[in-house]
Structures are given as C-alpha cells and as structure tokens.
Specification:
The protein has 267 residues and is α/β, with parallel strands linked by helices. The protein has a seven-stranded parallel beta sheet with strand order 3-2-1-4-5-6-7, sandwiched between helices. Helix 2 packs across helix 9 and helix 4 packs parallel to helix 5. The chain binds NADP nicotinamide-adenine-dinucleotide phosphate and D-gluconic acid. The site of NADP nicotinamide-adenine-dinucleotide phosphate (NAP) has 30 residues, from helix 2, strand 2 and helix 5.
C-alpha cells in the first residue's frame, strides 16, 4: 500500500497554481496540498488574495500568495524568483488563471479578443517560460495547463476563449515535445462545465425561478446528468502532478462527465 501512496505523493514538492484564489485553482491547490505539496498561488486582486489566504488557512493550508498578473512577464519572473528563493525550486506549475468574455464574434472588439487570448494563452506561455529553466536544472518538472471543452468544441459567443483554449492544447503538446527529454511532463486538464464564479451567469435562476436554459442544456449534454464540481478535478490534478503520470506527456485529460463522448439525447 505504501508504494501506491508514494506514487501519488507530492511530499517535498513546491506547486505554483495561477489564479488559485478561488474556483478551480483553489480546489486544485487544496488537492495538491492534501497530497503533500507546498502551495504558492497568484492572482491580480489584493482582496481576492487576502480572502484566499484566509480560506486556505480554514483548510489547514499555509499557502503563499502573490499579486501577479500572468500577462506581466517581468512580474512573473520576479514572482518565480521569489518563490524559488523562499520555498525552493518550483516542481509543479498549474496554469489555471483564465477569463472568458461571452460576446457574439462580430460584436466583439479586437481589444476584448486580444485580452482573452493574452490571459488564457500568452499567460501560460509566459509562466511556463519562467519555470522551465529551474525544472530543467532540477531534472524534472510537471506543467498542467487548464484547457476546456472549448479546446475541442466551438459554441456561439466564445470565439476568443475557444481560440485561446485550442491554442493552449497545442502549447501543451509543444512543451511536451520540446522538454520531454528533460523529464518534464506537460499535460492538460480539460474540465467540462464546472460550477464556479466563471460559469455563474450560465446557471443563474430565471425571474420566474426556473433554471437557466443553458443550465438545462448542459445537464442534458452531460451523460453524468449534472454540472461538475471543483472537487471532481482534485484527483486528476494529483495524478498529473505526481510520479503516477511520469510517462504521460502531451495529454489532455478531459474531466467532463462524458460530454465529449456524447452526441446528446435524441428528442
Ligand atoms: P474563475 O472562477 O473566474 O477564477 C479565475 C481565477 O483566475 C481567479 O483567481 C482570478 O483572480 C484569476 N485570474 C484571472 N485573470 C488573471 C490574470 N491575468 N493573472 C492572474 N490571475 C488571474 O475561473 P474558474 O471557473 O475557476 O476557471 C479557472 C480556469 O479553468 C480558467 O482557465 C478557465 O478558463 C478554466 N475552465 C473553467 C471551466 C468552468 O466550467 N468553470 C471549465 C473549463 C475550464 P483575479 O481576478 O484576482 O486575478
Ligand atoms: C461557456 C463556459 C465554458 C466553460 C468551460 C467548458 O461559456 O461555454 O464558460 O467555456 O467555462 O470552458 O469547458
């Protein structure tokens, strides 16, 4: 039994989770901590950071929070240097920070499109570039990019997000290709529809108290018949962060309740 636990143990590892102040990032950071990792996280808002530190403490986790926008390369490099100096080399990077803008494409400004791609795709590039030298020096590393259903599927109003998440899938594969020989595994997690602040507008009750049409749509498109919870992502994150996945590289692990496998119930 001991050897199995060792396979999934993150004891002695330092993990950096971007956007770890709440939502999926917070849940993944909590899971990695449960497996033994020291947790560092970043976000842009001081209020979110303070609240998160308190929330981690309530979970019994002494997390290390940093105010840093993943699109600010100088700030990212300074944060990685500080974490390396104070907590040791970063063993695990979870590129989780991300935004979405739901705007019909022809109504979306190029500025809005650029902002989504900047945070959701260029940010992970900047973050990976900042941590890879240390991982190469150490002779090992794990990078987990949080992709999406939209890495595979399109839908109205999310052109920028789908373009970014499709690109993130291929960035994942390229990091695998370029750094697999340095014993660095770069994989993706593709969550389905998860109940977080990001999807709250899609689940909002209607004025008459009925469920949001999109809410009903997603439940009908998901064989599991429910929205995902952030807890559904904890096991997959530990797997991809641990020695249990040392020969898994360039893979996108979809945690979607079966959405991608299902054409939908016949009328
Ligand atoms: P969320 O609830 O909106 O949380 C996003 C987190 O990222 C917050 O901590 C936010 O904090 C941080 N953040 C945003 N922009 C940032 C930036 N430029 N630099 C640093 N931190 C930044 O989102 P979520 O639902 O947890 O989603 C997390 C990730 O999973 C995203 O990449 C999302 O695309 C992806 N995803 C979500 C779902 C879903 O159904 N929820 C499904 C598939 C994939 P600040 O605002 O304080 O920076
Ligand atoms: C949307 C949702 C999705 C989810 C997620 C699905 O508007 O369609 O926000 O994009 O966030 O990415 O995997």
């Amino acid at each position: 039994m001991e050897s199995i636990n060792k396979l999934f143990s993150l004891q002695g590892k330092t993990a950096l989770v971007t956007g770890g102040s709440y939502g999926i990032g917070f849940a993944i950071a909590k899971a990695l901590s449960k497996a033994g990792a020291v947790i560092a996280f970043n976000c842009r808002s001081k209020a979110h950071l303070q609240q998160a530190l308190s929330d981690y403490e309530k979970e019994g986790i002494t997390a290390h929070g940093y105010l840093c926008d993943v699109t600010d390369e100088a700030a990212v490099r300074a944060m990685v240097a500080e974490i390396t100096e104070t907590l040791g080399p970063i063993d695990i990077l979870v590129n989780n920070a991300g935004i979405i803008k739901r705007i019909p494409m022809c109504e979306m400004s190029t500025e809005d499109f650029r902002q989504v791609v900047d945070i959701d795709l260029v940010g992970p590039f900047i973050m990976a570039k900042a941590v890879l030298p240390g991982m190469i020096h150490q002779g090992h590393g794990k990078i987990i990019n949080i992709c999406s259903m939209m890495s595979e599927l399109g839908r109205e109003t999310v052109s920028a997000y789908a373009a970014a998440k499709g690109g993130l899938k291929m960035l994942t594969r390229n990091i695998c290709a370029e750094f697999g020989s340095a014993n660095i595994q770069c994989n993706g997690i593709g969550p389905g529809y998860i109940a977080t602040p990001q999807t709250a507008p899609l689940r909002q009750r209607q004025a008459d108290g009925s469920r949001h049409p999109f809410d009903q749509f997603i439940v009908s498109k998901t064989p599991a018949g429910r929205w995902g919870t952030t807890a559904d992502l904890e096991g997959p994150a530990i797997f991809l962060a641990s020695a249990a996945s040392d020969f898994v590289n360039g893979h996108i692990l979809y945690v979607d309740g079966g959405i991608l496998a299902y054409i939908g119930k016949q009328p």
